[in-house]
TrEMBL record:
This is Glutamate 5-kinase. Its main location: cytoplasm. It comes from Paenibacillus faecis. It is found in: Cytoplasm. GO terms for cellular component: cytosol. PANTHER family: GLUTAMATE 5-KINASE (PTHR43654), ISOPENTENYL PHOSPHATE KINASE (PTHR43654:SF1). ATP binds at residues 8, 167-168, 209-215. Keywords: Amino-acid biosynthesis, ATP-binding, Cytoplasm, Kinase, Nucleotide-binding, Proline biosynthesis, Transferase.
Length: 368
């Protein structure tokens, strides 16, 4: 059985701060990718860099911030990026394919199935898939925004054995090392929790997006798919292979869970919540630690115009996101029975799909 590795590389590792591609960096990276691939290792690449590669050529003085300017830059830059990858990979006899995805592709099961089938076929033909967000057609509210999240979803989709996120810093530090030189590297992360998010800052360069925060988000998604993640640097010969041998210059995020079922992965990381429920402390305990379903008695508030069968987010009284689930009531129906014991709910409602507001089989916990 071949192992599958998803490698994600950020804009800062491929482009220069004033815009445009760094050809040398791509040449070197193509060499490393070629060395990583072997009879027993398949590689998929998630590459950023389209906006950073394209903005200067069309006259913007710096990485644009407005959506239409980023779209235009990406349209030019993505072509440049692929052209360069294809030329450099061809030197190693590797054919590369371009796959552009949007968040809505992951929300739609049949499109997700199609993407997965195409990737499988490319891999079986020995082609190196190069994936990026389809920036030109993505609107802000529906964007991944950062390719870190996209790489974790791709890793889960194709059941990768490892996700390697390459960036311009050699791992996660106790604080952003650009701001605090005394920060030290965290070699291994066993659990992703609030404390970890507290030390992670935003992007470190004018071309990066998301910083360490989005890399931790990615590690969280992948680890729920049972996939370990490395975040770090690989800019010296042999670095990339060493990351697979546990000797990389960066941070390893361990995974303890076996892969979540597809349905729960979709619920947690790809679906779009239509509304929100606020629950009390007893319901929080039942959902997070008790492995139980959510009943009307524990619900304090319902926001949004959701219908039975929609996905809703569940928050506690402090506004912390606890998880997501498929709701068995529509919003108006639920507002009528908030906080009531089950016997009372049964008396009030003529008809309800199920008594549980969210059944435990249709719930995923997302609390850090
Ligand atoms: N705790 C931290 N440890 C390491 N880097 C951090 C931390 N907090 C913020 N960063 C910043 O994250 C940056 C990497 O993310 P980003 O700029 O989005 O790069 P990329 O383009 O590779 O995705 C680093 O350059 C660093 O300045
Ligand atoms: N899709 C965008 C990249 C967004 C992104 O995540 O950037 P980065 O933080 O450099 O990985 C592009 O190609 O410019």
């Amino acid at each position: 059985m071949q192992r599958r590795i998803v490698v994600k590389i950020g804009s800062s590792s491929l482009t220069s701060p004033e815009g445009g591609l760094n050809r040398e960096a791509i040449r070197y990276f193509a060499f490393e990718l070629a060395a990583l691939r072997s009879a027993d290792t398949q590689v998929l690449l998630v590459s950023s860099g389209a906006v950073a590669a394209g903005f200067r050529e069309i006259g913007y003085p710096e990485r644009p911030k407005l959506l239409h300017e980023k779209q235009a830059s990406a349209a030019v830059g993505q072509a440049l990026l692929m052209q360069t990858y294809r030329e450099e990979l061809a030197e190693h006899g590797i054919s590369a394919a371009q796959i552009l995805l949007t968040r809505s592709d992951f929300q739609n099961r049949s499109r997700m199935g199609n993407a997965s089938m195409a990737l499988e076929e490319l891999l079986s033909r020995g082609v190196l898939p190069i994936i990026n967000e389809n920036d030109t057609v993505s609107v802000d509210e529906l964007k991944f925004g950062d390719n870190d999240t996209l790489s974790a979803l791709v890793a889960n989709l194709i059941k990768a054995d490892q996700l390697i996120i390459l960036t311009d810093t050699d791992g996660l530090y106790t604080a952003d090392p650009r701001i605090n030189p005394a920060a030290v590297r965290i070699e291994r992360v066993a659990e992703i929790n609030k404390d970890l998010y507290a030390i992670a800052g935003g992007a470190g360069s004018s071309v990066g997006t998301g910083g360490m925060r989005s890399k931790i988000d990615a590690a969280k998604i992948a680890s729920r798919g049972g996939i370990p993640v490395f975040v770090g640097k690989a800019d010296r010969p042999g670095d990339l292979r060493q990351t697979l041998e546990d000797r990389g210059r960066g941070t390893y995020f361990e995974t303890h869970s076996s892969a979540l079922p597809r349905k729960k992965q979709w619920l947690g990381f790809m679906s779009t919540p239509i509304g929100a429920l606020i629950v009390d402390a007893g319901a929080e305990e039942a959902l997070i630690h008790g492995g139980r379903s959510l009943l009307p008695v524990g619900v304090r508030g319902a926001e949004g115009h959701f219908q039975t069968g929609d996905v809703v987010e569940v928050l506690n009284g402090q506004g912390e996101v606890l998880g997501r689930g498929i709701v068995n009531y529509d919003a108006a129906q639920l507002r009528d029975v908030l906080g009531l014991p089950s016997t009372e709910v049964m008396k009030r409602l003529n008809e309800v799909h199920r008594l549980e507001v969210i059944h435990r089989d249709e719930w995923i916990s997302l609390k850090s």
